[in-house]
Amino acid sequence: MRTGGRLLVDSLIALGARKGFGVPGESYLAVLDALHDTGGVLDFVLCRNEGGAGFMAAAWGKLTGQPGIGFVTRGPGVTNASIGVHTAMQDSAPMILFVGQVATSMKGREAFQEIDYRAVFGTMAKWAVEIDQVDRIPEILARAWTVATTGRPGPVVIALPEDMLTDLTDTPALSAPAPIHEAAPAPKALDTLHSMLAQAQRPLVLIGGCNWSRASQDTMKTWAEASDIPLIAAFRYQDMFDNFSPSYAGEAGVGMPPHVKDLIRRADVILAIGTRFGENTTDGYSLLNVPEPQQTLIHVHADPDELGKVYRPHLGIVAGSNALAPTLIPVQGSWSTWRQEARAAYEASLIVPDQPSPVDMGKVTQHLRDTLPANAILTNGAGNFAIWPNKLFPFAADQRLLAPQSGAMGYGVPAAIAARIAHPDRTVLCFAGDGDFQMTCQELATAVQANACPIILILNNGTYGTIRAHQERHYPGRVSGTDMFSPDFAALARSYGIHGERVETTEDFAAALQRALASPTGAVLDLNISAEALTPRVTLSQMRSQALRSQSEQAQS
What we know:
Oligomer: single chain
CATH superfamily of the largest domain: Thiamin diphosphate (ThDP)-binding fold, Pyr/PP domains
Structural class: alpha/beta
CATH architecture of the largest domain: 3-Layer(aba) Sandwich
């Protein structure tokens, strides 16, 4: 006989869970008690805020392909953690969040911290469920693991009434995960796919999703280069393809480069693999007509619900990315110039003018490109600063990017900690704005306690840059609510026992990075960035001048 809490933990171990991120709560004490005996097998990573725990679980799922596990208490705990659930959903990343719940005898009375999890998370997660009977823990957990990892991966929320967790049962725990293979493309569909590509004049490949295996990435690269076809990545999935390949042509996301927009508009056949057509990848659904694109669209996805969800494909194929990749046969056509021009435009997009900053991020990014290991992991939250790792850092085959499709501020620091826990032998570098960093900077304590401290670059410009840029474009010169005071970030890092220093000029950066890479405690480098450098090519003053000129012209007309 064992408690529900013990049965849950034993079943998680059988499924392959090795880390769980959370903040303790009295509503799931029986789970915490079971975790007392699983150190080194299933470790509980103590976080400082449930939002940080949610981000870590979401990032773990995106990085490893296995569900990131979260443990939080009811009410305030799970509402804090909901940001991680939303992020995992938009990232199509596997995650399971376990939430304490009021006792079954109190449900429906608005008891202390009671929430209807099915109602709250019904549109935010792939599945939200409550386990009311202890004997059903293995059944529901097995289903949750499958739901989180198959089709379009995503988050599952499981509520755990506290009396259910203390009930005794002799129900056996799960024995092992059930291997479920991806759907393979039908031979007839493959014939049509290859025929459509062979008849193209300007073919384009668009890839997305976080569940590509390394073998499939290599296969995809070999096929794209043999076919001489340009390939672009969906928003924040450029690490799924070697950016140094002559076929790679850029990322379709926020701040989409003009040449990528042009590629999508001018392509006559688009092969989209493993991606959902979100707002950012389609430039607000403007690059393809809704619901029937002018371009011939071939959409391949493991989840049939994604086919025709926004755009009606000319050919829809239900297949996983890893199942599709080895079935592709190189195609030949007269599009070599098209591919060459796409690659040249991408390479040109990496060149930026000198930045009007005490610290020039263009030169910093170039130094990082030359210095970071070939298997480094980069993370970022949300803000204009993300342009540097997302648009101007080419990712090698073994490098990874953890960045939120949901545009959630505060993701970068927890994601970097999760990455360091998953891969303690790899360099993990987080890009954070000064506002972004302060959303989750308390998780530095988590990093120290877990011995998983990354290197964090704070691009400190004293303002919420993205919103400030929008202000200057729409309400020039009327700054409201975006200028911010910040603490001494280097001193804050040192107070946690982490190496911290302020980098005042571009010339100081290389030596500071060297010290950070050598630090056994990770590092926080506070970079002195000018607010003028909100974007790599347009200064703050230029934004304001352009907006005022436009307003004047409109008034005169």
